[in-house]
Design goal:
With 471 residues, this protein is α/β, with parallel strands linked by helices. The protein folds into three domains: 240 residues, Alpha-Beta Barrel (TIM Barrel); 76 residues, M1 Pyruvate Kinase, Domain 3 (Beta Barrel); 117 residues, Pyruvate kinase, C-terminal domain (Pyruvate Kinase, Chain: A, domain 1, 3-Layer(aba) Sandwich), CATH 3.40.1380. It is built from 17 helices and 21 strands. The strands form four sheets. The protein has an eight-stranded parallel β-barrel, surrounded by seven helices. A hairpin with a 2-residue loop joins strand 8 and strand 9.
Length: 471
Amino acid sequence: MPSFRSTKIVATLGPAVDEPGRMRELLEAGVDVVRLNMSHGTHEDHRRRIRRVRGLELELGRPIAVIADLQGPKLRIGTLREEPVVLEPGARVRLDLDPQPGDATRLPLPHREIFQVARPGLELLLDDGRLRLRVEQVAGDRMEAVVEVGGELTGQKGVNVPGVVLPIPAITEKDMEDLVFALDEGVDYVALSFVQRPEDVAAARRLVMGRAFVIAKIEKPAALEHLREIAEISDGLMVARGDLGVELPPEKVPGIQKRIVRVAREVGCPVVVATQMLESMRFNPVPTRAEASDVATAVFDGADAVMLSAETATGRHPVEAVRMMRRIIAEVERDELYRAYLASFRAEAEPRAEDAITLAAADVARVMKAACIVTYTTSGTTAQRASRERPERPILGLATRPSTARKLTLFWGVRSVLTEDARDVDDMVQKACRWARATGLGEPGDPIIVTAGMPFGTPGATNLLRLAWIT
């Protein structure tokens, strides 16, 4: 089997890779998909990066997907009269809608939605969970709380409200502006932050109108109650462990990560494991052993992709972080236990032709020791189903649309190529053999498995499996 990495790498773009040639180094180091964090930077910054990626896409001769990650609703306390204030454990604090600067006894909380769902016993987490308050009384637009975990606090720090569904839209006014910009610039995926229910994703899909694919970020405990429904309506999931780790006890996050990956594999949508994977490489040229193990765990679980955030956006060693992640992935995928871990779970196939063909293709490729499985795909569905099976051989996705070729860069085990559709079965086999050689996945004499839909060009109509040999 040729050297091939199945698990994809997503890297966040930022000032650390804006220097000439730096972004190319990042892509050549192993990045498959780039992410734009819309919480930071201007539209002009993001436009410049998108256009640089599109230019490099042509230079490198491979599709590269761009994810626009929307900020979502950010809950923050208001301003404080003097900073920092110290909240002592056991002290009582009033929170209200008054915009006047607060102090250690009163905190402005300019979010009416929190007061609408507040009740005695509700936890309020401040500054990424470093401080914890528990609500004791609620009266209209004010509430009294007791400090359970105290410390220093400055103004405009974030507020998390675990355990409730807040009556706020997943897309804010800022998100709408960012979404219009991103779609006009031709991004491939839009990541939706702070999803709480399937309706949040449905609303985003209506706004996107098919111009990009929608990824639901799972970072609110409320989303876990509707995880399968969210996965079924989304084009991908992201395990956003930052806020998830704030609103849930840290010891629960690893198990929840595995659950999210398992549900995504059942549904067949790609899943990205994100946040602090190689955090220490923001400053150091090598990661901790725990970080290396964290990346390896996601790979062993069968995640489609692992993501770098600040490590590549603002870190001191962005290219080294990508190379390290690539080496960890390669080592895991060579491990004798890797296939056993993947085989321990297999998604239940639906009784339809597409699932039967892709399931058979994986088995035939294994028995024949095929160089690769070649899928002709218009919408990406055929390659997506093949990826869900986590076959032992690489998947070569021959896409007839640029958007589809880029979409497939996020899928486990898929190497995507933009090409014309086949004219007939003979042309189908010839193209498949030619691309298998051109991508280095096969050599003359190697068997390949080809799947396609007849008539050609019909989205989602996989009904043909062909065994061929590269000439």
